[in-house]
């Protein structure tokens, strides 16, 4: 068994790194784009300080459009775009383009729903202080949802691990790809089990780190 | 200071148009504590929220310190809101910020720099008596302390007006008292104009110079608090006053009594006891006090006596006539024995 592991090691560590790259890029992009998008969805909602029916509906429709396409189809659908962007459609970086596109609206909805949990009165009190919309977002909404943002990132990261397996099979690489190639096409149960255990450990670690961070930023 | 002219606020709903505030005009003077009383749904909260345009009136005009608030751009409105503090029933503090940061937020909104912010926030916390809690989080504070923090926040930018939206309704009686005393103190020391809404007449009695009673979006009665208490004109106002000054006599006692029951109100400097003893000396009647209470409203006494008068009918009538002469405009209500205990007006 040790021998098998040693033979597998180079490929396993390469796959692991590829998965990390895909999940990592997807996570960073979903945070950077999804956070403002989620806040936009929230503040343009009815009875809020930047209420705007058009912006709200258009953003909402786009987010839903992306979310309603099954990921495996989105992947293929985005190939021309990825090709245009990077000049290639294979490798973990290329795969992370479609992973990011899928994760952005996912995270945006999480941001929106955690912002909805804020007591409207707190926002109203800020308005009555004469605060600008930007100050309210930065100083009231953001601190209140900080812990929710981190929990949301945890959920997104775990979904990305799952999606990365799909992205892997059509040229992205990574642990999922390894499992399919060896486990599915070659009936190699050892590789299959190793990758499954690795994925389980990975998800557990993400969950643990996420919960811990979310808890530690929660004040009061 | 605050002028509300023909203000109306309506909402569109599935069942049609709902009227929140219906053609209200009020003038609130500089430096006074003005109370707006009403049951929930009377529109008082909507009216208050129209005063800093948290809700935009459908029609009418709101002028504070000479500025027509409805004509302002959103930037100018933000500036104007900095001189209109507001506190709420639910305090509405940011849970993720410390006490001093919560107060500092209002200053940040006004563009005050970091060092000055800290200094001013500490001053304000001292004013509301919470200097030792500066670095705690709201969750660690009691309701009364949270309201003090929100008062400090509301006062941060030296406002001219403070709006209080049921500010004491979530607090126990003792805490309510201490918050009211604090409001009174800032009203006197800072010369702040305070507009408060409440469903508790006790609050009005305690600190309001003038008040208005609202029902179904309209102001049904308005005036000096003492006059309103001494001489309510509207039936709803009377009901509100009864929650504070109650003179209901137990049914059993009424059945037992044989004489005429009169309700006497003494306003201002008329000493109730003297009037009563004179009355009994001058007329051949016997008097029995069933209820007696003196309330102090704006430091002026308001006495309520319920008496049973026994004796010859004619003599009683004469006694009533002289009572009316002494008490002047004060109403004397007598118990008509034939129609059970309905307090019919004597005049």
Automatic annotation (TrEMBL), chain A:
Output the Gene Ontology cellular-component terms: plasma membrane
Q: Give the membrane topology.
A: Multi-pass membrane protein
Organism annotation: Pontibacillus chungwhensis BH030062
Q: Where is the ABC transmembrane type-1 domain?
A: 16-210
Task: Provide the transmembrane region boundaries.
Answer: 20-42, 54-79, 85-108, 148-170, 190-210
**What CDD domains does the record point to?**
TM_PBP2
Q: Which family does it belong to?
A: Belongs to the binding-protein-dependent transport system permease family. CysTW subfamily.
Kindly provide the name given to this protein in its UniProt entry.
Methionine ABC transporter permease
* Highest taxon of the lineage: Bacteria
Q: Which PANTHER family match?
A: ABC TRANSPORTER PERMEASE, D-METHIONINE TRANSPORT SYSTEM PERMEASE PROTEIN METI-RELATED
Q: Which GO terms describe its biological process?
A: D-methionine transmembrane transport
Recorded hits in Pfam families, A to Z, give: BPD_transp_1
Write out the annotated subcellular location.
Cell membrane
Keywords, sorted A to Z: Cell membrane, Membrane, Transmembrane, Transmembrane helix, Transport
Q: What is the lineage of its organism?
A: Bacteria, Bacillati, Bacillota, Bacilli, Bacillales
Automatic annotation (TrEMBL), chain B:
Name the Gene3D superfamilies on file.
3.30.70.260, P-loop containing nucleotide triphosphate hydrolases
An example GO biological process term is:
amino acid transport
Recite the UniProt keywords alphabetically: Amino-acid transport, ATP-binding, Cell membrane, Membrane, Nucleotide-binding, Translocase, Transport
Keyword Membrane among UniProt keywords:
yes
- Record domain ABC transporter: where: 2-241
In its UniProt record, a GO molecular function of this protein is: ATP binding
Q: Which GO terms describe its cellular component?
A: plasma membrane
Q: Which InterPro entries match?
A: AAA+_ATPase, ABC_transporter-like_ATP-bd, ABC_transporter-like_CS, ACT-like_dom_sf, MetN_ABC, MetN_ABC_transporter-like, NIL_domain, P-loop_NTPase
CDD domains per record: ABC_MetN_methionine_transporter
Q: Which family does it belong to?
A: Belongs to the ABC transporter superfamily.
Protein name, UniProt field: Methionine ABC transporter ATP-binding protein
């Amino acid at each position: 068994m040790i021998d098998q592991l040693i033979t597998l090691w180079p490929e396993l560590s390469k796959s692991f790194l590829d998965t990390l790259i895909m999940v990592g890029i997807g996570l960073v992009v979903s945070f950077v784009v999804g956070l403002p998008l989620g806040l936009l969805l929230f503040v343009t909602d009815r009875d809020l300080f930047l209420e705007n029916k058009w912006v709200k509906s258009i953003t909402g429709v786009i987010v839903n459009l992306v979310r309603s396409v099954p990921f495996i189809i989105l992947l293929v659908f985005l190939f021309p775009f990825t090709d245009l962007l990077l000049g290639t459609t294979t490798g973990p970086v290329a795969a992370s383009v479609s992973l990011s596109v899928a994760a952005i609206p996912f995270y945006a909805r999480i941001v929106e729903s955690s912002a909805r949990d804020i007591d409207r009165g707190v926002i109203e009190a800020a308005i009555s202080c004469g605060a600008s919309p930007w100050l309210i977002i930065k100083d009231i909404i953001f601190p209140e949802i900080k812990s929710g943002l981190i929990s949301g990132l945890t959920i997104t990261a775990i979904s990305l691990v799952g999606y990365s397996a799909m992205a892997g099979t059509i040229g992205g690489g990574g642990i999922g790809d390894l499992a399919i190639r060896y486990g599915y096409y070659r009936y190699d149960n050892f590789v299959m089990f190793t990758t499954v255990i690795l994925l389980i450990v990975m998800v557990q670690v993400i969950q643990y780190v996420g919960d811990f961070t979310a808890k530690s930023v929660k004040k009061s | 200071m605050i002028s509300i002219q023909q203000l109306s606020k309506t909402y569109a709903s599935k069942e049609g148009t709902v009227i929140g505030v219906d053609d209200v005009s009020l003038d609130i003077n500089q430096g006074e504590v003005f109370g707006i009383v009403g049951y929930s749904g009377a529109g008082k909260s909507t009216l208050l929220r129209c005063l800093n345009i948290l809700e935009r009136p459908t029609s009418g005009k709101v002028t504070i310190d000479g500025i027509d608030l409805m004509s302002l751009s959103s930037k100018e409105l933000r500036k104007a809101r900095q001189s209109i503090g507001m506190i709420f029933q639910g305090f509405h503090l940011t849970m993720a910020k410390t006490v001093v940061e919560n107060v500092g937020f209002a200053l940040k909104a006004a563009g005050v720099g970091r060092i000055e912010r800290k200094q001013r926030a500490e001053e304000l916390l001292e004013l509301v008596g919470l200097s030792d809690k500066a670095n705690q989080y709201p969750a660690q504070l009691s309701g009364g302390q949270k309201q003090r923090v929100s008062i400090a926040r509301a006062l941060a930018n030296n406002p001219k007006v403070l709006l209080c939206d049921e500010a004491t309704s979530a607090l126990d009686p003792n805490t309510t008292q201490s918050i009211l005393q604090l409001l009174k103190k800032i009203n006197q020391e800072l010369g702040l104009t305070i507009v408060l809404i409440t469903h508790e007449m006790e609050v009005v009695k305690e600190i309001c110079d003038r008040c208005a009673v609202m029902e179904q979006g309209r102001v049904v009665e308005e005036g000096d608090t003492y006059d309103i208490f001494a001489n309510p004109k509207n039936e709803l106002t009377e009901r509100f006053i009864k929650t504070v000054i109650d003179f209901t006599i137990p049914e059993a006692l009424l059945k037992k009594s044989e004489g005429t029951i009169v309700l006497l109100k003494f306003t201002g400097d008329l000493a109730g006891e003297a009037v009563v003893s004179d009355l009994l000396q001058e007329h051949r009647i016997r008097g029995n006090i069933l209820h007696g209470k003196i309330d102090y409203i704006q430091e002026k006494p308001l006495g309520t006596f319920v008496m049973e008068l026994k004796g010859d009918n004619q003599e009683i009538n004469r006694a009533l006539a002289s009572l009316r002469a002494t008490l002047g405009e004060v109403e004397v209500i007598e118990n008509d024995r034939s129609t059970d205990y309905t307090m019919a007006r004597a005049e």
